Amino acid sequence: MTTFYYEYIRYRNFNFEGFFNSISDYDIERVISKDKLNIYDFLTLLSPNAEKYLEIMAQKAHRVTIQNFGRVILLYIPMYLANYCINKCAYCGYNADNKIKRNIMSIEDVRHEAELISQKGFRHILILTGESRAKTPVSYIKTCVAVLKEYFSSICIEIYPLKEKEYEELVHAGVDSITIYQETYDEKTYDEVHLSGPKKNYKYRLETPDRACRAGIKNVNIGALLGLNDWRKDVFYTALHAKYLQDKYGDVDVGVSVPRIKPHIGAFQPKSNVSDKNLVQIILSFRIFMPRLGISLSTRESADLRNNLIPLGITKFSAESSTKVGGYLEEKEYEDSGQFEVSDNRSLEEIVEMIRSSGYQPIFKDWENVI
């Protein structure tokens, strides 16, 4: 069965340095003027030389976004169900070796937290767990989804990779979206930072979106954890992956996230620094390359940066996020340090007002339903 892994192999040994050294100003200007870009055009926009064209790229990305999405920003909120994990990932606060308080929400508290969140107005929710089939089996996820369906119109899961049959079970239960990050597409680096546990299986994780799409999921969100490896390479493979999914599964909405490594429990140091300017170049390149691509921006980023990125291609925004299990209940039994530090701590009301003052409409249901 064909999967993205075989597409990845075709480009695994691509000479990035040679390509970037060959890019001229003319090449960049030619790509920006094109209506339809190929993957090498995308890489041209990601080149170091293209950094001096960000203003022109921003103008085009803005036009393309308005043409395809209008002036709307979909708001969602994450909900951490559990932080038990059997993986040992060098960069993650959930690393099984880290001495953090481990929690799992009871079904009663899932309902309580769902009530609190839905009362704020949210209708899209992202539920997350660590990777522990013993503590958070698929049956537990299904039970949680059954409760959450009473409060939310869209449920996205960001959990461990499942078998195709298991995705079918969750789709039937009411899950319509998945988020799955490859973390880094470089196999060698992937093996180095995933010390042990089932997540060490690079190919199985890489093929997860294929299994979910075959199972009937409606929306797939992918990405790399920017900083684990050379960010230009990881962004290139992310775009290659997104284009593959969009072409192969025409009835699935494909999106990307652009998370940068944030402070967390542990001493891992990123392999590459991804500056704010780099992040802008990444978002602009994605938008120009794939006009219909969803692009999410989380509260990992600062309020000022998120404000400025709205017109440049962003379509989804998280708000009032907590990365703690039971983080909205404010009960002592769930107190933990969270998966990573949140940088934008504004209230939902403040974010809604900011979006409106920027000339955009904040929405709580999928944008397609309001056009």
From TrEMBL:
UniProt KW Lyase keyword: yes
GO function terms (MF aspect): 2-iminoacetate synthase activity; 4 iron, 4 sulfur cluster binding; iron ion binding
Co-factor requirement: [2Fe-2S] cluster; [4Fe-4S] cluster
InterPro entries linked: Aldolase_TIM (IPR013785), BATS_dom (IPR010722), Elp3/MiaA/NifB-like_rSAM (IPR006638), rSAM (IPR007197), rSAM_sf (IPR058240), ThiH (IPR012726), ThiH/NoCL/HydG-like (IPR034428)
EC number per UniProt: 4.1.99.19
KW Metal-binding (keyword) present: yes
UniProt xrefs under Pfam families: BATS, Radical_SAM
Gene3D superfamilies per UniProt: Aldolase class I
UniProt keyword terms in alphabetical order: 4Fe-4S, Iron, Iron-sulfur, Lyase, Metal-binding, S-adenosyl-L-methionine
Residues annotated as domain Radical SAM core: 68-306
NCBIfam families to which the protein is assigned, alphabetical: thiH
Protein's name in the database: 2-iminoacetate synthase ThiH
Organism: Aceticella autotrophica
